[in-house]
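User: Good morning. I'm curious how zinc ion would be positioned relative to this chain. Could you predict the structure with it bound?
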Amino acid sequence: MNVLGIETSCDETGVALYSTERGLLAHALYSQVRLHAEYGGVVPELASRDHVRKLLPLIERCLIDAGLRIDQLNGIAYTAGPGLVGALLVGAATARAIAWSLGVPAIGVHHMEGHLLAPLLEPDPPAPPFVALLVSGGHTQLVEVAQIGVYRLLGETLDDAAGEAFDKTAKMLGLPYPGGPELARLAESGQPGRFSFSRPMTDRPGLEFSFSGLKTQVLLAWQKSDQSEQTRADIARGFEDAAVETLAIKCERAMKATGAGTLVVAGGVGANRRLRARLAELAQVRQLRVSFPRPEFCTDNGAMIAFAGALRLAAGQRAEDALTVRPRWDMAALAAV
Ligand code: KG4
Ligand code: ZN
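Assistant: Good morning! Here's the predicted structure, ligand included:
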């Protein structure tokens, strides 16, 4: 079965073709980063309009790359939520129109399930049960995965998401949008330990996160400092170390609490090199397995949507007749696959 996947939940237009027999055949991504940069954040209406411009050319390119004609598609998967409603509607309407015209089934995919399953696109994929750490711009969650589609929330952030904390901290330090990857790059030249920030909520039991206080600590440190280039890098390093250590401590707790032997990590912050290294070290010490998507599939992409949709389509699941998207959508409400 050849499945076209379409991702338009935020500011990346992602398209991919996944074959249930042959694996990932092609994928293409257009990032709107430059479009939104002058506003310092995503402008929803501009995002929707740009998805309209980019989506069909990307689909055509993927078909060419995969050597498929459009009538060789057997199903269409699209991100149905959570995300920006206008942006979601562009992908949903396009996907459903293609599906109707070809007479093939369509399926609306949960964006975070897409992220969660992205590590399964890699060689030697992990199999449930496992614990997933989902760290993106909008979510920070630990999820127990009993089987694909059966998700139990173990803990999540009470305020900012991890990616959001990276982005806001970067902005405070005067780094260009989008800040997360920029801050990580700057932290490479920072001196570890010169700034030591607290690891929020690790001093009490539980699997909840909170990142907004850390952001405030960074702001105060920056305001009181000499604001030199080296200090900027040292503060970035201090922030990254605190965020990474906090995530690692909660992961370790979640693994203990569930008795799971495998941890999967996904979402944009999963591309962070220091987080990957720290969790790999944790896995070695605790004799666990940790599994990440390749960095380009940590951030938003079409491949994860094509893959998650293909699993559901292969299990006979279909989108309901009405074309609806869900800007908010609880992953625990999903059907088992
Ligand atoms: O998953 P994603 O592409 O979009 C959402 O669904 O939110 O995640 C984007 C987030 C942004 O906050 C971005 O700053 C962060 O992931 N991010 C990173 C890195 N690469 C992306 N944060 C820290 N280090 C990185 N290398
Ligand atoms: Zn995402």
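The beta strands are 2-7, 12-19, 23-31, 75-81, 106-110, 130-135, 140-147, 150-156, 262-266, 289-291. The mean pLDDT is 97.
Let me know if you'd like a different ligand tried.
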